[in-house]
Predict the structure.
Amino acid sequence: MQNLPHTQRALVATGPGKLTLALSQPLPAFAPNQVLVKVHAVALNPSDHKFLDLSTVVGAISGADFSGTVAAIGSDCVKPLALGTRVCSCVFGSNSLKPGNGAFAEYVAIRSELCILVPARVSLEVAASMPVALITAAYVVRSLRLPSLPDLGAKAKRMTTDSARGRWVLVNGGATATGTILMQVLSQIGCLPIATCSPRNAALVTKYGARKVFDYASPTCAKDIRAYTKDNLDCVLDCIGSAVTMSMCYQAMGSAGGRYTALEPYSDRIKATRPEVKADWILAWTVYGERVALDGVYERPPILEDFMMCSAWITIIERYLATGKIKPHPVDVNKKGGLGAIEQGLDFMRKGKVSGKKLVYCI
Ligand SMILES: NC(=O)c1ccc[n+]([C@@H]2O[C@H](COP(=O)([O-])OP(=O)(O)OC[C@H]3O[C@@H](n4cnc5c(N)ncnc54)[C@H](OP(=O)(O)O)[C@@H]3O)[C@@H](O)[C@H]2O)c1
């Protein structure tokens, strides 16, 4: 164990939409199967301000995505990690059940299996931008019943991707942080990603693998997608998940229907318009195999299967990062502002001003 301080600085919720920089928070307790990570950088997610604004837990540390170095190792960790190992991952910040463990802090506790090794080719600043999107990708692939990523390990038996090869998959919101990672995963599986975005992000989205890009603001967007895919689109990820985007996605899908997966709860009213489309939405906060104590449809019991799925997914993903086969979303790194600059970034994101990049802060 490295020499650890007794207290840390952390961003703590003081009321709806309000954070304060607490100067002497206790370090998070870490269980025998967890490591304690000294945080180097954090990245912002829309969930950070949604939790803060809509389900405020006063006194809880905010933040999900982080990167850093292993500072202490529990006695019962499964993944072999050494002190100083560079890792990235995400924690469930603003969590009423674990208010002392959020990413916007100097230390976080995390199960060893959920630590993603950061290869030498990737900086810790860039690594901080990826974990939520990488883990969300595992849920999306499962929800859409697509084959998992082939394991690049030397001895691993390559999985067949025949059911995916040449299949169109629409990523609505191709310029989101989730979208650019998903399009790369889809390409690796053998699918043909197509995407929507603003015209200003068309080149970016193409760079991440979209075979064709559509402007979601165009009144003919759905019709254009349906024509382009010759009425054969049967697989959609909606990274936005509003009634407007769900409606567009439903209209874009072929006559035979298929699978629609959203990152937010879907509308039952729109679902009822096309029974041949199977609608689903995912919630990646079950990754820890622990209860998700949120209101209404967001509440989840502990789901050990999700923890197991993501642990296995991470070992595969690490090889894609190490070989550069999966590249990070563009980042905007704030090296000087530290924890104190994050609230301004959250406000920027809250106002919908973040486009085609991830905001990262060195701590
Ligand atoms: N359920 C889960 O487990 C889970 C996991 C991860 C994320 N999420 C949710 O998924 C959503 C996306 O998260 P993220 O971090 O990937 O997003 P992000 O990177 O913050 O998304 C920003 C992008 O959204 C795009 N966008 C905005 N409105 C759009 C629309 N109507 N159609 C298409 N694109 C639109 C914009 O693209 P342009 O600039 O091109 O306009 C912008 O670049 C958030 O609501 C987040 O909370 C949920």
Remarks:
- DSSP finds ten helices and 15 strands in the chain.
- The chain has a mean pLDDT of 96.
